[in-house]
């Protein structure tokens, strides 16, 4: 049964390793802020991921019976991603105009983690896919302990990859140069790219 925990950890760690809104934002916060601000952000992300992973387990059976629900989530995700892309574009322009350092609210980083994680429309389909795969091979069942171990493993996997992005933030900055100085612009392209990719699924 402990294998469910490690599989949840492994899939989440690998799934969230590529550059995304969450880990690139974590990188930005660590570069421009301090450890406490970074911790508040990752805590906000982790709480929402816990809820998303938990809900996804029980949505998996329903989605198999009603594929149209997954299609609805994907279409809603396109709208959210486009709005996020616009938000990050405006943030990039706004940062270019700011010359004096701004005092930040400590709570804002926790709320930012909560909001960005909640707006991550790929999270529920991702966790549903993980759960469906594990159910296919009988690695997970709907008993309380299996579900709890899967969810905790998933949350720790995502927390760990965010932790690594924060720990090696300055090394990543040295390797990528100007890329990390324009993270909001990078996030704009990432979210727009995901939105375009999802739209192409409905066109092709």
UniProtKB/TrEMBL annotation:
Location relative to the cell: Cell membrane
Chief localization: membrane
Keyword DNA-binding: no
GO biological process: amino acid transport
Membrane-topology descriptor: Multi-pass membrane protein
Keyword set includes Iron-sulfur: no
Cellular component terms per the entry's GO annotation: plasma membrane
Pfam families linked to this entry: LysE (PF01810)
Keywords, in A-Z order: Cell membrane, Membrane, Transmembrane, Transmembrane helix
Transmembrane region(s): 6-29, 41-63, 69-89, 109-133, 145-165, 185-203
Name listed for the protein in its UniProt record: LysE family transporter
Organism, scientific name: Polaribacter cellanae
């Amino acid at each position: 049964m402990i294998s469910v925990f490690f599989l949840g950890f492994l899939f989440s760690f690998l799934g969230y390793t590529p550059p995304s809104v969450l880990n690139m934002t974590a990188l930005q916060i660590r570069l421009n802020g301090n450890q406490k601000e970074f911790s508040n952000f990752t805590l906000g992300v982790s709480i929402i991921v816990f809820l998303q992973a938990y809900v996804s387990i029980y949505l998996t059976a329903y989605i198999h019976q009603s594929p149209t629900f997954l299609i609805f989530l994907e279409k809603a995700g396109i709208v959210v991603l486009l709005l996020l892309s616009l938000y990050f574009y405006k943030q990039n322009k706004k940062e270019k105009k700011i010359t004096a350092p701004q005092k930040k609210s400590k709570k804002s980083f926790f709320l930012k983690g909560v909001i960005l994680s909640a707006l991550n429309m790929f999270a529920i389909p991702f966790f549903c896919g993980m759960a469906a795969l594990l159910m296919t091979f009988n690695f997970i069942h709907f008993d309380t302990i299996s579900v709890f171990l899967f969810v905790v493993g998933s949350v720790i996997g995502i927390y760990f990859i965010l932790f690594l992005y924060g720990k090696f933030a300055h090394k990543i900055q040295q390797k990528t140069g100007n890329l990390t100085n324009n993270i909001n612009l990078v996030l704009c392209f990432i979210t727009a790219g995901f939105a375009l990719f999802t739209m192409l699924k409905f066109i092709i």
